Amino acid sequence: MPISYFLVLSALLFSVGIYGVLARQNAVLVLLSIELMLNAANINLVAFSAFLQEAGVAGQVFALFVIAVAAAEVGIGLAIVILIFRNRQSVDVDEMSLMKW
Amino acid sequence: MQGALTSPVDWHAIAPELVLTAFACLVLVVDLFLAERAKWLAMPLSAIGVLATGAATLSLVGSERTTLSGSYEIDAFALLLKGLFCVIGFIVLAISFDYFRSGIRYQGEYYFLLLCSLLGGLVMSSARDLVTIFIAIELISVPGFIMTGLRKGDPKSNEASLKFFLFGVLSTAVMLYGMSLIYGLSGGATRLDRIREAIDGSGNEPLVMLSVFFVVVGFGFKISAVPFHFWAPDTYEGAPSPVAAFLSTASKIGGFVGLLVLMFKAFPEVADIWRPVFAVLATLTMTVGNLIALKQRHIIRLLAYSGIAQSGYILVALALIDPSSPGVSRQALESALVYIAIYAVMDLGAFAAAVAYARRGGTYFIDDYAGLWQRSPVLATLLTGFLLSLAGAPPMAGAWAKLFVFLATINAQVYWLAVVMGVNAVIAAWYYLAVVKRMFFEAPELEGPVEVPYFLRAVMGVAALALLVVFIYPPVITELAERSIL
Amino acid sequence: MARSYFSQYLTIGLFLVVSVGLVMGTLQLARLLRPNVPSYEKYTTYESGIDPIGQGWAQTNVRYYIFALLFVVFDVEAVFLFPWAIVFERLGTQALIEMVIFIAILALALLYAVKKKVLDWL
Prior knowledge:
With 486 residues, chain B is mainly α. Chain B has helices at 2-6, 15-32, 42-58, 76-101, 107-126, 130-148, 155-185, 192-198, 205-222, 231-238, 241-266, 271-293, 299-319, 326-359, 372-375, 377-391, 398-411, 415-441, 454-472, 475-483, and strands at 65-67, 72-74. Chain B has a domain at 271-486. A two-stranded antiparallel sheet of chain B has the order 1-2. With 122 residues, chain C is an all-alpha fold. In chain C, 71% of the residues lie in helices and 0% in strands. Chain C has helices spanning 2-33, 40-43, 64-91, 93-115.
């Protein structure tokens, strides 16, 4: 199976993620879309690492770090979302407009 | 691979990071066992930690070493920036003390997070590997998300935190995607020197262009370059002001260090691809930042937009890099380093003055700065000094910072960028001097004296003095920068 | 390479057809064989249970979120533990010390949670 399959998959996943970030209004869904983008990068890393024989396992190690960082980010993101929900009973990103210019 | 697994760690080389990690953990634990009234002790402890880290950094001066199988490098460049990060950390601690002691409940957590973020800066200075750079940039920004939202009951702080978080994570994702492509294109290298060997401009041009573009966009968010700047003013306004001071210096400089290292160490061979990108970014960043700053009435937002504009000048230096003429590249990097160092001190000074005034008898609104000279001559003089420096006017070091970048631009024969810089310096002077004029030549509307805490006053005084000394005798900083070329 | 890869999907497809057919077939067979005596009781959701009260869409206590966060801390730790465990024998004592430090720092998070009374139930 050629590597291009994986790259196309990850490119599609990345695009879906970008679409979600731009189009969704719920902060949690935006967060999930960003996770999709991170995972797209992970697919790339692992695929390259598996296909490039001389590359060693650096890509897979990189992916592990990305997973850890992504988990930390989700934890913080959800904390912020819950905080906002407590204060204003809504997690709609479009309503976040107290400050402009 | 075997060798890489078992290579010994050079503990002395990573001593500053170890010391800072230990102190961060210590602050967190000590805070847990302190009574509510004694929580402020976390600040002196953190300050000791930062000073100890600085001492550990000094103990490495003069040595060149690499460790962690080449992904971690101690050289003059790294040490200069580590020292700068320690200075930034210390000044931010000084600004935070008065602010957090009254009013905010999470003092220990704040200082812990601040030290963690600072640790990210130290790691970034030495990182010479994609993975390490990624971890460092995350370590800088992730604690920032929490620090921004520390005023839990304030909807502005909530909103600032969410905006910063979403933009921050989005930029990470974009940058990471670019990095994953680079990993593949370079045949599985993560170390920057290997990537440089692999990507020498032959073959796969569009893909290289795309991945470098992704990385630059990701860093563009971190350094709040236009058009990726939307989060910055809102985040700075909503965040606790000392956090805004930290974000606009340490976090931004961390991003610049990452960019400089990547561009100089990994992609110099494909400089033709990204040099125009930086030129466009620099022009946009300077111009848009300055034009919007003209209309600001809130001092933190003014500083935010001025900070955006200042990023533009550093981006100019990046736009000058040309591997075919090493002299020009050298001068560009030197001017960027000088600019970064001076920018950090003067920006922090301005933030410190703004926070001190807002906490002690004033507000954040520029209208209320009227007649500050009559209420507190010391604060007015110090703030004037910092604003003049930001404007690039004598007798402060900011003048040299701008001049060096300008000279580098002339030397590289990119005259149109030099013209853009000149025009922007004039626009910028307008809004800085408007604040100065208000402080000195208008009658005060608010009454009462302004009592700035002595510690903060001393720190601001030393910062202003340093800027003055550098103006009078610039080799203090230029020689350091000259020795710290990558 | 690619063709043989996709031909493996054929097996999966066959299994899919067989398994769906088996379920459908037995259900039809049962319908033919069993007696058909409909009554009201048989149409309620739980024939022998208590009738449900309120909506099925209930809100969960937000406190569970903190447990989820704590779980994430130690769940992600495992990501680093597994590769470390595999090469541990080749790495020796230094790796052991490093991992102990790593876990100790993570344990600080647990200490923090305990001191902040996160683990006490309401």
